[in-house]
Amino acid sequence: MNCPYHPKNEVVGYCSSCGALGCKECIVSYEDRILCQKCYRREGREREASRKAEGKPKRQIAEKKQKLVIRFSSGKILKGTSYNLDLSSIGFYLNPRESSDTDERLFIRYPDVKAIFFVRNFDGLPEDAELEEAAEWYPEGSEILVEFSDGEVIEGFSLTQYREDSPRFHLIPTDQNTNNISILIERANTKSVRVKDTVTAVSPDMEEPEPEEKAAKEVREELTQEETLGDLYLDTRDYGESLEKYLQASKKIGQTKRLKKKMALCHYNLGIVMIKRRDYVQALEHMGDVMKIFPKHPKAQKKYLQLKKALKEEEKAPSPGAE
């Protein structure tokens, strides 16, 4: 799983204070605790100043064991700790919670696992536990609904772009104020994985209603190279690149009905991505572009009105520091 702040780096741990995920550039070890930069600055500035005066190292990069609750497809549950999990391997080693002897560590095979929960506390959070606000991050992936073979359903966000061919993937819980920081899903033991909000294929919603006789007269044009590339990018959910290719194709052959549907599809999904990033201005523009193509598109109309309302409320809200 890639770091939300440094996409080229792998996540190595999480903040014990706020639960934020981070790479080696984000996470520091301080006073036997693992902290993100934000919490480190808040909690350690004064003590670190005295430590620095004594000539001790400023900070150390953390390689902290992760607390894991493993749920197997057989129904068995195992708790323990492990270092970085290599998702490209067949499995990983776990130090069982009940044992302090490293010789008793177990090898866990990914295919035997239903899901691995990265947790804050093995016993769950007390009812009166107060979680500090986690560092803000904007998931680049999609909102996903996972149904397991046993009927259990979990939903959340993929931290990076979701790939249907990945044997396993991380899911960030929708509610980040729970004991679960992240969940590793083993695809082989799921019944279905559904991407919410985004549209993965051209559907009737991407066009205005028209008489059947008119639709029957549509002639199927041969695909251009640009449109073919656009379809390839669309299959991988790279909506920006696919939209660019469709625009190039439209310059060659004109805006055919088929291209209009695909361009509207890209604009709609780009709008959803911008909503998740909380870039409501860009999201509004994309939903507006959908309606320029298909004015009566119901989903785009609904999102457009919601975004207009959200932006209007933001304008009314007092700016930080204003009295």
Would you kindly provide a written description of the structure presented here, covering whatever features stand out?
- With 323 residues, this protein is α+β, with helices and mostly antiparallel strands.
- It folds into three domains: 13-61, no CATH class; 66-196, SH3 type barrels; 204-316, Alpha Horseshoe (Serine Threonine Protein Phosphatase 5, Tetratricopeptide repeat), CATH 1.25.40.
- Helices cover 31% and strands 23% of the residues.
- The strands form three sheets. A ten-stranded antiparallel beta sheet has the order 9-8-7-6-10-14-13-12-11-15, with no helix packed on it. The protein has a three-stranded antiparallel beta sheet with strand order 4-3-5, covered by helices on one side.
- Helix 4 (239-253) packs antiparallel against helix 5, helix 5 (257-276) packs antiparallel against helix 6 and helix 6 (280-293) runs antiparallel to helix 7 (298-316).
- It is globular.
Task: Describe this structure in a few short sentences.
By secondary structure, this protein is α+β, with helices and mostly antiparallel strands.
